[in-house]
Automatic annotation (TrEMBL):
GO cellular component, one term: glyoxysome
Protein name in the entry: Malate synthase
Active-site residues annotated for this sequence: R182, D468
Leader sequence residues: none
Amino acid sequence: MIGLGSYGYTAPSSKKINAYDVPQGVDIRGRFDEEFAKILTKDALQFVADLQREFRNHIKYAMECRKEAKRRYNEGALPGFDPATRYIREGKWTCAPVPPAVADRRVEITGPVERKMIINALNSGAKVFMADFEDALSPSWENLMRGQINLKDAVEGTITFNDKARNRVYKLNNETAKLFVRPRGWHLPEAHIFIDGEPATGCLVDFGLFFYHNYANFRNTQGQGFGPFFYLPKMENSREAKIWNSVFEKAEKMAGIEKGSIRATVLIETLPAVFQMDEILYELRDHSVGLNCGRWDYIFSYVKTFQGHPDRLLPDRGQVGMTQHFMRSYSDLLIRTCHRRGVHAMGGMAAQIPIRDDPTANEAAFELVRKDKQREVKAGHDGTWAAHPGLIKTCMEVFTNTMGNTPNQIETVKRDDASNLTEDDLLQRPRGVRTMEGLRLNTRVGIQYLAAWLTGSGSVPLYNLMEDAATAEISRVQIWQWLKYGVELDGDGLGVRVNHVFGRVVEEEMARIEHEVGKEKFKKGMYKEACKIFTRQCTASTLDDFLTLDAYNYIVIHHPKDVSSKL
C-alpha cells in the first residue's frame, strides 16, 4: 500500500472502478460498492455537504475553545459553573414535552450498528436500542456504510440476518425497542469523504445519511409522529449543544417537518459538561429528551482534564465507581437538573456479560448489576443502560419493582436535595490505592481493545465485561498519568514506581495475551501494532486527546476512482 496524505493508505488497482455519483465539491475516497451507492446518493450527499458547509467553521471554533480550556486547566485552573449563565440555571423554563413513543425508557441496550446486533438488540425486550457509530464501532469504511444500510433496513422493518454457522435466520419481532442512533463526536473526521478539499466531519456524515434516508419512515412507525431520535456524545459545553440544535433545525427545514420533531439525549461524559447541564438542555430545549450518565468516559475525562494536576491522581479504575463522592454527586445533580426541566435522567452502563461456564461467577456478576441498578432507580434515574441482552430482564425487574407501571420518575422524584451540591462536591478527589494488578489490567485491556479496533471490532468482550473505546481510554490516560508523575504502586505492599516497571509489564502482558488468545490468533491479529500505538501514547510527553484519533490513520483506506488510464 502507498501512503496518501494525512489519512490512511491508497489501495492499488489495475482496472477501472465504478464511481459514486456525487454533487460538486464532494469526493468519495472509500471503496465503491453498489449497496453503498444506495446510501451515498447524490441528494443524500448534497444534504451532508450542506450541513458541512454551514457548520464547519462553528465546529472548528468549538474545537479551538476546547484547546483553550485545556490550556487553562493545564495551568492550574479548575472547571466550574459559569457566572455568565447563572440566569439559565436559576430560570424556571422547561424543555418540550417528552414524545409519548419514548416516555418509558427504563432499560436501554447499546451496541454497534452490526446487522445481527441490531436485530438482537431490537428484539431484546429493552425499551430502547442505541445503535452506535461511536465508541462501540471501529469506523472503517465498511463498518460505517454497512451500518447505514443495516439501520435503513431496520427502520423499514425488513432487516434479516442469515447465520450460516448456526443455520439460523434472524428477523425482527412484532414488538421491538425504540431506535436511537449515536453519531460520532465533533472531533472525529470522516477521511473517506472529502468536502471542498477537506475531510468531512464524522458526526455530520453519520447523522446526515441516517436522517436523510429514514426520517419519513421513522416518524410513521417508531416515532409515532416524532423523530428520528439520537444520542449525542462527548460534548464539553452548551456552545457545542447549540451547534447540534442548529443542525437539527436545518434538517427539519430540509425535510419539511415540524420544529422539535428530532429528539436527542446528551451524554454527560466530560467533566466540563457537568457544570453546563442546564445550559446544554436550554440550547436543545425544543429537541431534548434528557441527559445520560456516560460514566466511563466521565472518568476518562476527569483524568484528561486534570492531566496537569499531580494532586488528582486516580486509584485503580476498578475502585472508581458510583460510590465515589464525585461520581455520586454527578449522578444526583444530573437527576435533579433533568427532572426540573421535564426530561429523562438516564443512568449508566452495566458492562457485565453472562459467564456461561461458571454459575457462581455469573451470579456474582448479576448481583453487582442488581445493586448498581437499585442504586440508580432509588436515586431517581428514569432508566439505565445494559451492554448485553442477557442483562435486560434483571435490569427491567429492578426498575419495575420501584417504578411500577409509571413510565418514568420525572414528576415523582425531584431530588431538590441535590441543589446544594457544589463545585467541590463534583471535583472531590477519588479515594483508593494503585496496584500492580491495576497497572497490568490497564495494559492488557488497552492493548487487546486496540487490537480488536484495528481489525474492525469496536465492542469487545474482555474478562467478562463488554469493553468499548471509553474503557480503553481510561486504561491509557491512567497509565500516562501514573508515568508522568512517577506514581508509586501503594496498594499491594510493593512500593515500586510505575516508571521502573512499565516496560517489563508490557512485555509480560503481551506474553499473557498470546497465551490467552492462542498463538494463531495472536499471529493473525494486530496485537503487536496495537502494543506499539498504546505504549507510544502512554509514554508520550503530551497526552493525546483521544486514542482513536491516532489509531484512525491505520484503518483509513483510500481507493482510486479510475487508474486504468495511468497504467
